[in-house]
Amino acid sequence: MRYALARWNGLTRFLYDGIELDTNPVERAIRPVALGRKNHLFAGSDGGGARWATVCTLIETCKLNGVEPYAYLHDVLTRMVGGHPINRIDELLPWAWKAANHVKT
Questions:
Q1: Which of 36, 44, 66, 79 could join 48 in a cystine, given CB atoms 3.0 to 4.6 angstroms apart?
Q2: Which residues, given as ranges, of the chain have pLDDT below 70?
Q3: In this predicted structure, what is the pLDDT of residue 102?
Q4: DSSP code of 41?
Q5: Long-range contacts of 70-78 (CB under 8 A, 24+ apart)
Q6: How far apart are the C-alpha atoms of 27 and 13, rounded to whole Å?
Q7: What is the rounded distance in angstroms from the CA atom of residue 43 to the CA atom of residue 49?
Q8: 78 touches 46 (CB < 8 A)
């Protein structure tokens, strides 16, 4: 009780400045990370883990740039297999890809 009473102003601050006590938005935001943590254990090797991290980064970058990840990966991988020049790989980054393809997602 003494602990709570000594910190009463901090404990009741949400009543006066409108801070939401609900943690659901935060929990929803970190759920993919928590679920992925278990799946990432099975990457197979350090190299597999590095490749998995690269794919996850590309997918999240797509989401941040308003690009549908499946369409992006399908098109970019198809272009790479088809011989897209390595010195123009920056054209395939999600923000550049979106600008070049004018795809609404």
A1: 44
A2: 18-20, 42, 102-105
A3: 64
A4: T
A5: 71/103, 71/105, 72/97, 75/101
A6: 22
A7: 5
A8: no
